[in-house]
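Hi P.,

Sorry for the delay on this. The queue was packed all week, but I finally got your sequence through. Input first:
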Amino acid sequence: MYIIGENIHIISQSVKDALRERDAKFFQDLAVRQVDAGAQALDLNLGPRKKDWEEVFPWLVKTVEDVVDVPLSFDSTNILGIEAGLKTVTKARPIINSTSAEPERLEKVPLLAKQYDARLIALTMGKSGIPVSADERVTIALEALIPRILELDIDIQDLIIDPLVLTVSGCQEYCPELLEAIRTLQYAWDPPPAISIGLSNVSNAVPNENRAIINQVYCVMVMGAGLQMMIADPLDEGLKETIRIVEEKDGSTPVGRLYLSIHDAVANMEEPSAAAVDVDDPEQVAIWKTVQILLNKVIYADSYLQQESMAL
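Then the structure:
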């Protein structure tokens, strides 16, 4: 699994504070820890940064590049800020995160990718927003995103399609459709573009105590659908262990065997089976309940893990 580390994110209060104070040591430590934990690229999410973008983007690039050599992913709605960052890169080939199929964005952002030889993340979102169904998201890729890349003579393998993870809290019906979008996009073009998602978005607005298991179970499911790249937290030891279990096919523990059963069912386009669950094991029961909400079989509630019933 190719991990783009998500932890330099303006939504974090500590990141906001460090950016305000230009605390280079904070960002360098966070960058090194993510890379040491296995991140193969780092997402720099600075938001729109309307006032001080001209100084902040280059400053952060120089700060991070002083201590790591991995690609930097520029995650912002500020196209000028992205370009200021791209101009400053001296090490690994950068990533732009992101364009969408919205006309103005699709017109301008791929041009930056072409000009600065950057890989490009493209969201399956048009001017009317994010469609629920997998087919509609794939259609956006086929009819808008890929044609624009080809028009500019950008190598299709430099395109990274993001079919968009939405939270299970309030957007539950999107979760199973994403699995189908990932599966279909792998056959949408020859050669196919890479596919990436923002994994932790699935647990946005969920109580903190439930976020880890939702992220881990969904990770197993999207890997079953064929995903090989994601923006995620490389410092999450539980998530790393989940990825390891799937990649090494380690069924040496009951939880490992359950995860592999879920992964293989998704890979075979089948529904995971409750027969693989030991109902006397609370951890396995929690995993199974999470599978059910992510497949939109049971209505999500913040208290879903505390409910006694288990859909079989």
